[in-house]
Amino acid sequence: MARASAVKMPPEANAAHGCEGARRVLALMLTFSADDHTLTARQLAERTGIALPSVYRYLTLLRETGLLAGDERGSYRLSARLVGLASAATAAESIIDVADPVMRDLSVRTGETVILVRLIGRSAVCVHRVQSPQQLRISFEAGQPLPLDRGASARLLLASLAPHIRREYLAPVAERDPEAAALLEKKILIAGQQGFATSEQEIHRGVWAAAAQVMQGKRMVAVLTVPSPLVRAPAEQRTQLLGQVRASARAIEDGLRPVRRQELRPREIPAPPLIATGSTVILPACRSSAT
User: Fold this and answer.
1) DSSP state, 7?
2) CB 36 within 8 A of CB 48
3) What is the mean pLDDT of residues 74-97?
């Protein structure tokens, strides 16, 4: 049986001292995805907001530890060493075993891509996805980070945090635009009270999304989300789609309870009516008795 060897940290590791340095290193690694598997230092700097000289310093660290590989053209990619880590992470994600059949059923019934999102560090990360069979679809990859200040999934994840921790996470938004940060906080509180949220064209243009929290006991462990092209999510169908997402989130919760692990078929939960006010959709607060 192969044994994992410890990572020997090189002298350059001192350049990434403290928590902030560690967060930046992780932010660089989380920028890579199946679609963007090869990136230049400049692209990494643009996407993370980290200064280019610091990016080069962190890239040196990652290459020395064998987690990143580079080529003569100045492009970088995650190394094969991470394959073992990915396998270990998948094996540890027991929620995926429970969620997968529910997500597949939801994808069949809606015809849309279904994603499971968790809060990992300071990122909303897609940990599992079932791809829509349709040609026009929203594409996500497992491990792909999502914006924390936009989208229905992020609002629900942020609602699970203590207020002081949430303020810390959203400090960059508050510094950039205090009014936007205050509005976001209101939306987060509403999402937390309802247990579900919707968004329209917040992350991707032409996309409407419905999301519901997945609870294990009193703790939110994930968010189940269905992003749908606007052409397949007219206003009159959104209530039904939201109800399907919420029902599937309840089914995952049932599966996470050991004594009821086999009861994974979603129960249809009628969603409250969506009230349109201008370009804003208001969802009346309610809770199911049962993301």
Assistant:
1) P
2) no
3) 73
Structure confidence by residue, pLDDT tens digits, 91-110:
556 789 899 999 999 999 99
Q: Are strands 196-200 and 207-216 parallel, antiparallel or unpaired?
A: antiparallel
User: What residue spans in the chain does CATH classification 1.10.10.10 cover?
Assistant: 11-84
- Taking the C-alpha atoms of residue 42 and residue 29, their distance in angstroms, rounded to an integer, is 14
Calpha distance 35→283 (Å, rounded): 34
Q: Tell me if 78 sits within 8 A of 33, measured CB to CB.
A: no
Structure tokens at 146: 């999502």
Distance of CA 247 to the CA centre of its chain: 20
Under CATH, to which class is 93-282 assigned?
alpha beta
**Is-contact 156 226, C-beta < 8 A?**
no
Cα separation, 71 vs 52, in Å, equals 18
- Structurally, what CATH architecture does the domain formed by 11-84 represent? Orthogonal Bundle (1.10)
**Could you tell me where in the chain the CATH 3.30.450.40 domains are found?**
93-282
